[in-house]
Design brief:
2 copies of one chain form a homodimer. Chain A has 352 residues and is an alpha/beta fold. Helices cover 30% and strands 25% of the residues of chain A. Chain A is built from 11 helices and 17 strands. Chain A has a 5-stranded mixed β-barrel. A 4-stranded mixed beta sheet of chain A has the order 12-14-16-17. In chain A, a hairpin with a 2-residue loop joins strand 16 and strand 17. At the A-B interface, strand 15, strand 16 and strand 17 of A face strand 15, strand 16 and strand 17 of B. Strand 17 of chain A pairs parallel with strand 15 of chain B.
């Protein structure tokens, strides 16, 4: 049974304005200044365990050309355009129903093992990552279980949802007790001490048949739309049908639609240096830094007496910063932000 | 006798990088964001007392086109290009010898009253300025005196040279005792208390015949080069001769060449809101400021919790600054500087 990878790449990255904009969001940016964008790094991470013909990207119609340009190895028919954002359940359903249709048309095994992943997370240890994913794939291949990869927490993070596992024994597959929303700090501290709580990284492993039947059971309205769309897959009518029917899907997350309802959810703890790079602060932490702790990405940036800054410059030719401590300096396409790292939660209100 | 105005516009404005660059320096910039550049404001200031045909600009050959574009009222033959910078004495001599040649060719009065002024200073009260200049012109018209306009000091400034006047009685013309270099703070305080010391603003008033004979006497080598050049003025050979001979002039300031040597130097105290806008701090002081004391010039600059900043943005489309206090933010042509106002003396070392 072949593995398929579904990369979800529809986010708009508004916390990273102006580096990330709705026209060209974070997952398509070389945020670390290492020569590969986040979605390219996601692709690279799976390449040893999945042929590009079995990789799929679901993204906004606006980003299809960017994906084609950044991931030319993926067949363009595997790049699925959402005419409107409908959260993760319709996104995942779209890819899975499309994979199912391809398998039907190919006439071989009608089932497949699938990994669903965000496009914009960072993994510092891809080999360990692939070991965890392979364990999960081995497990789902022989069962109708759903596996969500859990990240072993390293701090009482209040910015993530948590997975409450039934035990923390070993590194293997563990049954999930329940999912927890983003906690307050005291709760996050207790989760960390408890040891049975893992970060929910939004990485899912399941068989095609499992997710299809789970969606049918727990999100039947989404499954019905997909059944209708699926008849048009690989026909001349495909684009028109997608554009007409996809937006009629309910806006619903896969967590709410399936994960919190299915009795058959497992997790596998991962300890592979994961970060969702969800804040400028975490971007700074995960970047190469100079002796003064500044993470600087840009062609010609010179710092004097600066420390703890994160600088991301795209189009300026030459930048000199002096006497800044713990600031964000970000520029792209004629937009410039200078902002304290401690104020980064205000960035959303700045981009009117 | 007609008045002539000589505007010296050869400076490179290196303290204001990157707003000001050697390619497009400060005097050609609308530094206050009011719709007129500093050299245009200098022109405007003299227009009520001088016809444009009697205005002259001496500048680097690189800036001639900028001057023509910014001051189209001044005849292009009055825009004098220095092939190389040779400090103020050759600059002033060039203009005065040229004026003399024009008067000779016109066959009328061979003398004229002349004001020499920098192009990049600010005058907040131009009417009062013109009253002072007119008094000086009245005085020099009937004498062979040299008048240097002195600015009544308002603080113990260590960044300017001082004029030691013989008395501080009244607002009229006073004999100059001596010129003083930039003082240390204690000396500057004593100058302020003394009351007989004025800032040297580099504004000179004299008759053509006076400055020509003074240069002949105190800087004969410069005068000799000018005599040779003058034969080519208003001929086809002019450019070639200037390019060949002007660079052979000694590099010498008018202060050192004439002012400190001539026995016939007077000053007239001016109290017309003068600033040489020599620092970002003085630029901030002299600009319109928001309620938080930020002086912001630029098309779309938004500040949150900033104070005491000076922001000058030329090409960026949109700028958001947050949490900056007493900083310079300056951008032009793809170059960006963010620097504490207290560190602005370091800007010269930043622009390699």
């Amino acid at each position: 049974m072949d593995n398929h990878i579904v990369i979800m790449a529809g986010g708009i990255g508004s916390r990273f304005w102006p580096m990330s904009t709705p026209e060209f969001p974070k997952q398509f940016i070389d945020v670390l200044g290492i020569g590969r964008t986040l979605i390219q790094m996601t692709f690279d991470r799976f390449l040893p365990i999945c042929r590009p013909e079995n990789m799929w990207v679901v993204t906004s119609a606006h980003y299809v050309d960017i994906v084609k340009q950044q991931l030319p190895q993926i067949p363009s028919e595997n790049i699925l355009a959402e005419p409107a954002a409908r959260n993760t359940a319709p996104c995942i359903a779209y890819a899975c129903w499309k994979i199912r249709r391809r398998l039907e048309l190919e006439g071989g095994d009608a089932d497949a093992n699938i990994v669903v992943t965000p496009s914009d997370a960072l993994v510092l240890n891809p080999e360990q990552y692939r070991r965890v994913i392979s364990s999960a794939l081995d497990f789902t291949a022989g069962s109708s279980a759903i596996v969500t990869v859990g990240i072993t927490p390293t701090r009482p993070e209040t910015g993530y949802g948590y997975i409450h596992a039934r035990s923390n024994q070993g590194e293997g597959i563990i049954k999930v007790q329940e999912f927890k929303e983003k906690p307050d700090l005291a709760t996050a501290v207790s989760y960390l001490e408890d040891g049975n709580y893992l970060w929910n990284a939004g990485i899912f492993v399941w068989k095609l048949s499992t997710i299809v039947s789970s969606l049918r059971r727990f999100a039947p309205s989404v499954a019905e739309v997909m059944d209708e769309i699926a008849e048009a897959f690989y026909t001349d009518d495909e684009s028109r049908v997608i554009e007409t029917l996809f937006p009629t899907c309910e806006k619903i997350s896969i967590d709410y639609a399936v994960m919190e309802k299915s009795p058959d959810i497992y997790t596998i703890p991962g300890n592979f240096g994961w970060s969702d790079l969800g804040t400028w602060g975490s971007l700074r932490q995960n970047s190469a830094k100079d002796a003064d702790g500044n993470a600087i990405v840009g062609p010609s940036v010179e710092q004097h007496e600066c420390s703890g800054c994160v600088v991301h410059v795209s189009d300026l030719k030459h930048v000199v910063i002096e006497g800044l401590h713990d600031y964000i300096v970000a520029e792209k396409d004629g937009r410039l932000l200078i902002c304290r790292l401690s104020s980064e939660q205000r960035i959303k209100e700045f981009q009117k």
